[in-house]
Amino acid sequence: MSPLSLIRHRDRLLQALVLVGLVSVWELSSRAGWVHPFLLPPPSDVLARLFADMQSGVVFVDLGLTLYRAVTGFVIAAVLAVPLGIMMARRRGVQWFFDPLISIGFPMPKIAFVPIFILWFDIYDTSKVIMITFSCFFPIVTATYSGTSHIDKWPLWSARSLGASESQLLREIILPLASPAILTGLQIALPVGMITTIVTEMLMGGSGVGGAMIAAGRFADSVGVFAGIIEIAMLGMVVIRALDWLRARLLVWHPENRAH
Amino acid sequence: MTADFGIKIEGVSHAYRGAQGQNAVGTLALKQTDLLIHHHEFHALLGPSGCGKSTLLYLIGGFIPVQTGSISTQKGPVTAPGPDRSIVFQNFALFPWKTVLENVMYGLQKKGLPEAECRDIAQAHIKLVQLSGFEQAYPSQLSGGMQQRAAIARTLAVDPDILLMDEPFGALDAQTRRVMQEELRMIWKRRPKTVVFVTHDVHEAVFLADRISIMSARPGRIEHQIDTGLGPERDESTLTDRRFVELGEQIWRLVREQAVLASRGGL
Amino acid sequence: MAAGDMRPVAAVDGRGSLLAVVALCVRYLPVLIMLAVWELVGRSGLVSQQMLPGIGAIAAAFLDLLQSGELVVNAWRSLSRAATGLGLAVLVGMTVGLLMATRPLVRTLINPLVRILYPMPKSALIPLVMIWFGLGDVSKIFLIFLGCLLPVIVSAYNGARGVNPFIVWSATSLGASKEQVLREIILPAALPDILAGCRTALAFSFILMVSSEFVIAKDGLGFLIGSLGDGGNYPAMFAVILTVAGTGFVADRLFGSFVSHRLRWKEQA
Question: Domain limits at A167?
């Protein structure tokens, strides 16, 4: 093993040790009562609860619901935002109309609009999904617009001079060239969607991971709260990994995926 | 006269730790290098890419620690960077958020001089490099040649005993390069210093230097040392001087074999 | 002797400003169009006035809230909490990030924490701070602090690592000590990245401010929205929501101008 990779391994090992050390300190201080076990329950208790919930299936029901809402909202947003982003890049009129609306919407704390959606729809899934769609929409349309308008013009001109029609151009040249940027937008939007899902679930209560966590909070069930945090963390990691894998598959041809 | 040397380099070797894929020992950049540079000498280190000339310069500057051998100046052994051995880099390395004046004042402020004095000395050096009028400009507003002038002013302002220059004109276009070479000689005449000038350009080395060390391909060693003997006055007419042309040819022949070796990956 | 060419940093003149204002109006015309559509939809009766109050009603409610002081008081509570959390996050985050980049020991200790916490949506910690700190100010300030901390740490760390090493060498050869290099060279060089991280943190602070006040609050703008909604006073609810959204937007724009000014030394790409 060459010296540099040895160093990297040692580095990673040290970092892992730091984590292990912290968790051990946590377990110890919680059990020994140095920290009030209510505020910081022992990791072993949290894991035990997680296990129990997994066996009873509660975890999967909650995660499933949260995931379903997040993905639904995300997909709707993508279906609306990607075509709009492309059109904005191709037609000046479309860009002129939507650009200010989007650039105003982007930095707004969109979560503030939840009560409006509750008013318009209901207190169950519809309003949640619409809210998620709303928050996913902006990063996707921005990334799509930016990616599509910044593609290399040389392949485009070559294709045109070879006689490609507008729709062929769009499908076979523009879309593939813009896909890295579009995918990046999607990769940002999904976690945003998941956060929005969890927050809306917390606001409205009920089912789903967010709802379960806020219920645990209100009942002062700190073990449950920590279990929920771990569930969310794992969900987040799984989703991000899945997206990375998907990106690598779709962008096999792209230089970013050439082995270095 | 015995202690009146500029830089003494004795038995210096340097190895870089191996990158992935290389052997555990790493790359030997310099091998058993000995060099004595005289006081106020304009000395060029000439050689192909990867011959270790920049490494040697950084060792003199104190930016990388000496592994084997020793390097010393009149002030003693070299252990760390300092304003007695100021350096000019190829990519100018100006502080982009500071104006030209603030850049040039930086080293002076580090010396603890009062603000007004810093300003005055800085202005004088900006004038020396013919950059007057651009004190309030940011580096991003200047052309390459102007940025390098600013970098030279910044380095000279702290009045170093030794001026280190790492292919300073390499990033400039050919015309600007010629102009800068002439101006550097003029400045050096007015402010004599010991200069160590790294370059791969033979004509540049011959035009500028009193003495040239030709370095071998990796692992680097000083293969030849040549006195240019061209005298202190150098300008455009020098370029057509018979001695200059002959010397250029002679040195190029020496360098060429090293250059070929280097392009094949060294010994 | 040729002096070389100089590129201007900013072009400002009287005629330019007038053109800029006109351009701004044209740019934001679609917003006016949307507002007009909004009003029309309400007037036409397509949607009940309850669900989509007219702009006039909203404006009236806004003025009411302003006069009664309710809006100002709650806005002050919310924004001061957010500012505190954000301010602390920026200070601590910058320091930690810069130290991580320059001292390997700090990096080894802090990096694993960052990597674990980074993908964690901080809003998920709302129930946790509720348990720890109750419904008061501390829980929200702490939440905002945590949420804003990580983007700043990461951007400071990356910014510091990306500094041109020759600049650092130049500074040391000009006589700067290690502390001086950190403060006078690495910090300003990393500033573009740090400011980008702060902009993200700013957006997060608003989001966390609103979210936490929806869920666990006794006062503040989020709480106000909730209670207005519960009480059926929809025009007022809309008014406050739009105020919050607008404030977030304005804050971001102001920060953007601040950044442009601070980074005017940068090359205009």
Answer: 42-253
